[in-house]
């Protein structure tokens, strides 16, 4: 009977999910909810069930934001793309729909995680954990705090995807009448406030660090709770939801406005305070920006190689000092197979995930300013000029090799994050600086002889491939790292953004941008623009610094999927609609290879800032309203 009630309640809340999904909320070998809370051991299983809805952010088949960001591209739906479902590819090529939405997190369908079921599961835990007799009060409070933060996070995931959502503060009882079950959407600012409230309630009972790392890494801590609160309040303050007149018509059927159409600077002030608190807690717990520590058995490497490793390993080094929250369940074996180019050490990779060359324009020059602004960089001829690589660049490019000017004199993140013809490829099997591995991707080489295992732009997102990944001829063994869901650098850049929007350019805002830039080997913002930019005063205005912060964020989080959401909260259709371009990769000489091809032109409109609700849900629950233009 209990299971039937749980299934019924779930149907009433989300209107359409398959009933079998609800069986997942009861741990294995526990037939009813009541029995799940009869003792500590079964209650702990239920606690971990609450964690089980965390999305697999490192999965090629589950995380559509990798490709949806337009930073990575893969062949069209229907082509051979091992490990990637057609649904994910269809979404990334603008095939979203309202009949059967792709990556449907509202219902947990078609590649989506059932977030409303996740929230219900958390509520059931919170309603019943007080019944467990054989648990110490300190531990009970910690578990309650963890689940409150998970509940906050699940609300946040839905907020950034759908905007206004029905909050799941408590579960609707089975005895509720039909009208009570017909929930409506809650305004964005109320959802954001509820997320912040849950985090605040939880923080006093959470540890600052995980002491029992063998068994508890990945569980919620106070810095994680504060970071989620910061993310939610930054989203609430961003242009998508703060003063967005385009959403004036997004109202419930009773006329209740769901998005704030009048700009409110105080939202940025609240966001800045939340970012400050999250950073302070993270720093106190020992988190700092990652810098590569050379293992004792690694040969000497150049300062340039080490700088590239500072950047690359911030993603691929498990539980490094920058990773505030890692998803231990989300490993990256298949992701690396997609992103690793075939080379002279290992060739058994899929290699189909291509870095969009147009998106790679976002990287700065070596002078730390945009390529179109640099006084000393030949922007006009970036695609047409061929150059010979000088020996001084041997740590990142093959000496005396012909390449495009586009690849020359770029910042370290360009070389750390990308693999391309003539680029160095530092891996554990070739660690000697005098014996560097270089990628050879001219057509007909060992790395480029089959379009079924080759980047169709000529670039690969090397950033996502661990340097410890190994192979031998036809073998390939990925060093599967966990996915870093929250990094300290994100808090630094969000804090700088919130400070600029709330009080204008300031030394504090520069400080946190410059911390991220320093790790990338760049001078500070003010110094770099003054010395190298055609727009030297850019950092001194709100609009100019906003542009700089957004570009810095796009660079720092390129290929991670994070920018999928950043582009939307900033309302940057120009970024969402960047064409997918690349070189003419089936050519055999530099003169013919280095010709730009247009591969795909996205066609996003402002309706794509938010995901659609499945049309069937609107039929079942007439109080729900659809997102604009869907």
TrEMBL record:
Annotated ranges, domain RagB/SusD: 337-630
Signal peptide annotation: 1-20
Keywords from the UniProt entry: Cell outer membrane, Membrane, Signal
InterPro entries noted in UniProt: SusD-like_N, SusD_RagB_dom, TPR-like_helical_dom_sf
Any single GO CC term annotated in Swiss-Prot or TrEMBL for this entry: cell outer membrane
Main localization (coarse): membrane
Localization: Cell outer membrane
Transmembrane annotation, as ranges: none
Pfam family, one: SusD_RagB
Gene3D superfamilies (UniProt xref): 1.25.40.390
Domain named SusD-like N-terminal: residues: 114-212
SUPFAM superfamilies: TPR-like
Family recorded in the similarity comment: Belongs to the SusD family.
Name of protein: Starch-binding associating with outer membrane
Organism, scientific name: Chitinophaga eiseniae
